[in-house]
Amino acid sequence: METRTESMPASVATATPLRSLVIAIAGSGGDGVALIGDLLLKMAAHQGLYGMLVQSYGPQIRGGESAVVLRIGDREICYEGEDTDVLVCFRAADLKRFRGSLHLHDDSLLILEEKDTGALPEWLGTTNQPVYRHPFATWDGDVEVAGEPKNMMALALLCRALGWPEELARQAMAERFSHKPALVDRNMPTFRKAYDAPNVPQLLQLKGHGVPLVVETGNEAVARGAMSAGLEFFAGYPITPSSEVMETLIDELPAAGGRIIQAEDEISALGMVVGASFGGVPSMTATSGPGLSLMTEMMGLSSMAEIPTVIVDCQRAGPATGMPSRTEQSDLYHAIYGGHGDFPRAVLGVFDVVHARDVMFRAFELAENYQLPVLVLSDAYVAQRRQIRDGVTDRRDKPRRWRWTPEDGPARFAITGDQPVNAFRVPGTPGGTYLAAGIEHTEDGNPSADPGVHQRMSEKRFKKLEAIAADTRTWVRTMGDPAAAKGIIAWGSSYGMLREWIESHPEYRVFMPEILHPFPIEAFTEWRKGLLETTTVELSYQGQFHRYLSSLTDMNGVRSFARSGGLPMSMRELGEMLGVPATRKER
């Protein structure tokens, strides 16, 4: 099995400073805030600019406040930035639920409703620049009534400020509403009117490399990465923030010859996946924390019967219903330890949208090669962000399961030395009949309550983790100067923030595992040599990652910076905790 160590590319560490803009747009339900961000991101991608879009919204089905934060720049972006360079707000009162998400700086541009004189919250900060006001709303006396679409006005003002031509906006809208071309023509007069408004401030003029790029969400990347790895069957139940994995596969998997089904619940979803995989078909499901809880018994079946399964968990803030639209990294214990009895599983983490495709290939590689459940831990921050990436085609050979032939011997679960995996017998293969069940069994699959058999079979199943550990020992990503005296250990979606932190803080180095269980302990031990100060960083109130590492190696003297989720970790927050100023980027 191919392995590799990925370090931060030299081009990233030594490139000229990133030139970028952070644009935030806040409004109420129905204002079309998300559409503005989506169209701006599409326009950036068309020009060969990079970018990332995150959305903030509440748990309600409809209504409520909504905001998007868009960052565009001249090279790859996987972190939405710190301070807001441009804030468009249709009502000052709508800002109240976005505390912690938005921060002004001295040169921030504010674009506000002409008649809205409401005070901005103190936590937002202040700017030295004059406020630009535009008549977004339509009024009947002092009452706001339905009028021209505010989002088209805001889109036009931002395009004008960025120096982007009107035709670029029309192109993006035509793509977005290809099924409703009349909608574009109906909205263009409103767009032009705002585009021609007087005295529109000018923003940093960013230039892309001219080659169109691809916009993709984390969930879309997970779905397409799974298809590239050979996915043929998906069963799932919709749950925030994972639902778009299933939605993407509904649109794309059948055309590739695969099948998909929406199950009645998460228990049956994983049951169907186990059943399809038992039939020889590469299969997966996707869920979030509450759904993963329901899948736990079926995970044990997958491991006991040695049937490959892939389970994607898009983590959200918990427990119970928790905060469904908010991010957290608190399913780590569940993924590694959850379940009754002792059974092996592998656990991988997702860094960002670009990384998601590679992670899914690795997940299917492990599941098919080692015949056990493989969990992929994404989270809301990665799953629902939109990120511009280079267009890539995966040309790797798809993982293939070791299929049984009569030459492979009679016993499905034979214990043969250090070999923890046996040839897989697909039902219907002549001569390959055996008993497959969740009960403990002999080498032939026959039920057994013999403690000695249980011990030997447990040893056989757990040898898979030893083999996986040997094959994945270099599945890590390190960033920064290997000789730096201070270290940060993190996993998952903290990657983008830490990648930028390292650029302005060369006294630090970072260790991020791509595989969480079995943990690449040898690579970690080698990386931490010479460190004078080390900190773990995570979105978990208990510090689950720190405690997990403490169960594997000596973590005395290593600080734990852990908090509950809701908002992603920021460079400002990390700097305050470490007592180091977060250097502000060139705009």
TrEMBL record:
- Entries under InterPro entries matching the protein: Pyruvate:ferred/Flavod_OxRd, Pyrv/ketoisovalerate_OxRed_cat, Pyrv_Fd/Flavodoxin_OxRdtase_N, Pyrv_flavodox_OxRed_cen, THDP-binding, Transketo_C/PFOR_II
The protein's name is 2-oxoacid:acceptor oxidoreductase family protein
Q: Which GO terms describe its molecular function?
A: oxidoreductase activity, acting on the aldehyde or oxo group of donors
An example GO BP is: response to oxidative stress
User: What SUPFAM superfamilies does the annotation carry?
Assistant: Pyruvate-ferredoxin oxidoreductase, PFOR, domain III, Thiamin diphosphate-binding fold (THDP-binding)
- Highest taxon above the source species: Bacteria
Domain (Pyruvate flavodoxin/ferredoxin oxidoreductase pyrimidine binding) ranges? 225-455
Q: Does the keyword tRNA-binding apply?
A: no
UniProtKB keywords:
Oxidoreductase
Pyruvate/ketoisovalerate oxidoreductase catalytic domain segment(s): 29-196
Q: Does the keyword Disulfide bond apply?
A: no
